[in-house]
Write a structure and sequence with these properties.
Keywords: Membrane, Signal, Symport, Transmembrane, Transmembrane helix, Transport. It is a multi-pass membrane protein. It is found in: Membrane. Its main location: membrane. The chain has a single domain, classed as Proton glutamate symport protein (Orthogonal Bundle), CATH 1.10.3860.10. The chain is 71% helix and 5% strand. A hairpin with a 5-residue loop joins strand 3 and strand 4. Helix 19 packs antiparallel against helix 20. The N and C termini lie far apart (81 Å). 35% of the residues are buried.
Length: 488
């Protein structure tokens, strides 16, 4: 699993630059628009499905609220902060820092003047005078200030954005940039060969990771029994989306058997399930999509790296279910306005999710803050998140793959036009004097590397041929008429 994660960065960089450079800028814009619209639509659909299921099944039992110990850690979380963090990560100020750190907003207590003063001048008389004031200040709520900090973890979103723009402009400079495109294409092929070698270890790796996770839970039976209805609700949502909704969309758009496509992604699904990260499964997903399912590489190189950062169908489903589950557990009654709030914030939060395990629990705080549900109850879900995270990650990964197949079908005309243009440029065009020239070259250009004796003045040749024909007609007029009669 560590080796798979090692390959994510070179794979994302090489695939995006080579993929976006192989398409022209207008094509990139069309594909990006189709991809983002599809991502947003499916995330909204999953959030709506989650809300419908959680209201129908009603897994939140108020008795659970008292049986499990909860921490009283309250964290100030705001949807605006989450969206601003998304913006900061999309546009990193340092590309090298983005490869190992990502920006996020934290709220820290504002340092008081008396504390700073006491630390600077450690005088006992001042401490005695201010002791009463300090005691009063400790009782009061500390003032929190917003601070932008960096936490460890690859900022894949920023790297994706940079590579996308870089590749798009690389494709516009023509022959000059071809050596760079070939360089990144070669890197992509090398990494995929390395992935093929690692794949032999996958069964051992996956079973070990899952077994280790199960053994690390202290009382598995009690946790599963208490939160069984919650797990069941999420599982039903994932199964419904994977086996019904996704397959119907695929069949309607692509007009092929969707379950054959689904079966080709089993290996990638198992890897996503084990690692609980779409990004970690990305090398295997590429291999399945390109080698087994034969989806156009220009589309997969473009869609999959973007999808593993933005398209979080399973996360949208989970957040909507979990937020209403916690509200039900606290005895809250949600009105229509609050349900719409959950729908929209779940969709927005899922698209700003980091592609790391358990990232959804942080985003859940955003939604709970929006509907005034108890934020500290999130700790209840830590006990089962190791399992639920794996289920929703397979949904995220499959969402990316089906998006690539659907975008390929919708962009088929543009891809064929692009293929035709490339083919037209590569076909040698024969010139009247028998030489071969490429499209866009003049006769003189095509022969400029040959000896002077080969260069022919075409006007002189045409004039000479016409003179010979005229002479022939004058010399044999009856023969010419005979030919004409024979043709009639």
């Amino acid at each position: 699993m560590r080796v798979l994660k090692l390959m994510i960065l070179p794979l994302v960089i090489s695939s995006l630059i080579a993929g976006s450079a192989s398409l022209n800028a207008r094509m990139n814009g069309k594909i990006a628009l189709r991809t983002l619209v599809y991502f947003a639509t499916t995330s909204l659909m999953n959030a709506a499905l989650g809300i419908a299921l959680v209201l129908l099944i009603h897994p939140g039992d108020p008795d659970l609220h008292n049986t499990i110990d909860r921490s009283t850690d309250k964290r100030a979380v705001n949807l605006l902060d989450s969206l601003l963090d998304l913006g900061r990560n999309v546009f990193p100020d340092n590309l090298f820092q983005a490869s190992f750190q990502q920006a996020h907003t934290v709220y820290l207590p504002k340092p008081s003047i008396s504390n700073t003063f006491n630390e600077t001048f450690n005088e006992t008389s001042l401490v005695d005078v201010d002791s009463g004031v300090d005691a009063q200040r400790q009782d009061a709520e500390p003032t929190l200030i917003r601070v932008i900090q960096y936490r460890s973890g690859t900022n894949t979103l920023g790297i994706v954005f940079f590579c996308l723009v870089f590749g798009t402009f690389l494709g516009t400079i023509g022959e000059k940039g071809q050596v760079v495109v070939d360089f990144f294409s070669a890197i992509f092929e090398v990494v995929m060969k390395m992935v093929t070698c690692v794949m032999w270890l996958t069964p051992v790796g996956i079973s070990s990771v899952i077994a280790g996770k199960i053994l690390s839970v202290d009382d598995l039976h009690m946790v599963m029994a208490q939160l069984m209805w919650f797990i069941l609700t999420v599982t039903i949502g994932v199964v419904l989306y994977q086996f019904v909704i996704m397959q119907v969309i695929y069949y309607v758009v692509v007009r092929r058997n969707p379950f054959k496509f689904y079966a080709g992604l089993i290996q990638a699904m198992l890897t996503a399930f084990a690692t609980a990260s779409t990004a970690a499964a990305l090398p295997v997903t590429f291999r399945c999509m390109n080698d087994k399912l034969r989806v156009d590489q220009r589309i997969t190189r473009f869609v999959l790296p973007i999808g593993c950062n933005i398209n979080m169908d399973g996360t949208a489903l989970f957040i909507s279910i979990a937020s209403i589950f916690i509200a039900q557990m606290s005895g809250m009654t949600l009105g229509f306005g609050e349900i719409v709030t959950v729908l929209l914030t779940s969709t927005a939060a899922s698209m700003s999710s980091a592609s790391v395990p358990s990232a959804a629990l942080v985003l859940l705080l955003v939604v709970l803050t929006a509907i005034d549900a108890p934020v500290q109850d999130v700790t209840l879900l830590f006990a089962v998140d190791w399992f639920v995270d794996r289920i929703r990650t397979t949904n995220n990964m499959l969402g990316d793959c089906y998006t690539a197949a659907i975008v390929e079908e919708l962009s088929r005309k543009e891809l064929m036009a692009l293929d035709a243009a490339i083919l037209y440029q590569e076909i040698p065009i024969s010139t009247p004097n028998g030489h071969v020239s490429l499209e866009g070259q003049t006769e003189l250009d095509s022969t400029c590397t040959m000896p002077d004796a080969v260069i022919v003045d075409m006007n002189a040749v045409i004039n000479k041929v016409q003179q010979q024909q005229q002479q022939h007609q004058h010399q044999h007029p009856h023969h010419q008429n005979g030919h004409a009669n024979h043709k009639i």
